[in-house]
Amino acid sequence: MSRLLASAPSRSLTIVLALTAILCGALMLSTPVRAAELLMFEQPGCPFCRKFDAEIAPGYPSSRIGQIAPLRRVDIYETRTGGILGLTPAVFTPTFVLVGDDGSEIGRLEGYPGERWFYPEIEALLDGREAKAKATAGRTIAPSVR
């Protein structure tokens, strides 16, 4: 009997530690990813890069995303990875790659979708694409008619 009583606190401690680990894991999953920077792969003469420069670039540094992930421009002819080991090379311009604090790719946006959709798309990357999934929930895509 004394052995059973002696092991009860250790079982309680094990249960508390297990629940704490589960709670910490859940909190980590619900916390948005921390971004270090947003890489913009560009090239001279790119018309979509110019459009980005006119519509988004002036206000980007003061935007919420700009505060979280400052923009770093990368000439695609100089490097397709922005000097980040393991990054999948960019092919098109502009390509926006959201990079985490640890240097890993969080996500990317190939092309410039225009002023209306740029921030929502980058926000979706930052939030783990939850915003995009919620925005498209329940929508059906009609088949194309030939």
Strand-helix topology:
Layout: H1 2-30, E1 35-42, H2 47-55, H3 64-68, E2 71-75, E3 95-100, E4 105-110, H4 115-126, H5 130-136
Model description:
This is Thioredoxin family protein. By secondary structure, the chain is of the alpha+beta class. The chain has a domain at 35-134: Glutaredoxin (3-Layer(aba) Sandwich), CATH 3.40.30.10. Helix content is 42%, strand content 17%. The chain is built from 5 helices and 4 strands. It has helices at 2-30, 47-55, 64-68, 115-126, 130-136; strands spanning 35-42, 71-75, 95-100, 105-110. It is globular, with a radius of gyration of 22 Å. Mean pLDDT is 78; it is low at 19-33 and 129-146.
**Percent helix range:** 40-55%
- Indicate the CATH architecture of the domain at 35-134: 3-Layer(aba) Sandwich
How many strand units? 4
**Mean of pLDDT:** 78
At the first level of CATH, the class of the domain at 35-134 is Alpha Beta
Give the strand order, joined by hyphens, for the main sheet. 2-1-3-4
Tell me the radius of gyration: 22 Å
Structural class: alpha+beta
What kind of sheet is the major sheet? 4 strands, mixed
Shape: globular
Distance between the termini: 80 Å
- CATH homologous superfamily of the domain at 35-134 - what is it? Glutaredoxin
Run of helices and strands: HEHHEEEHH
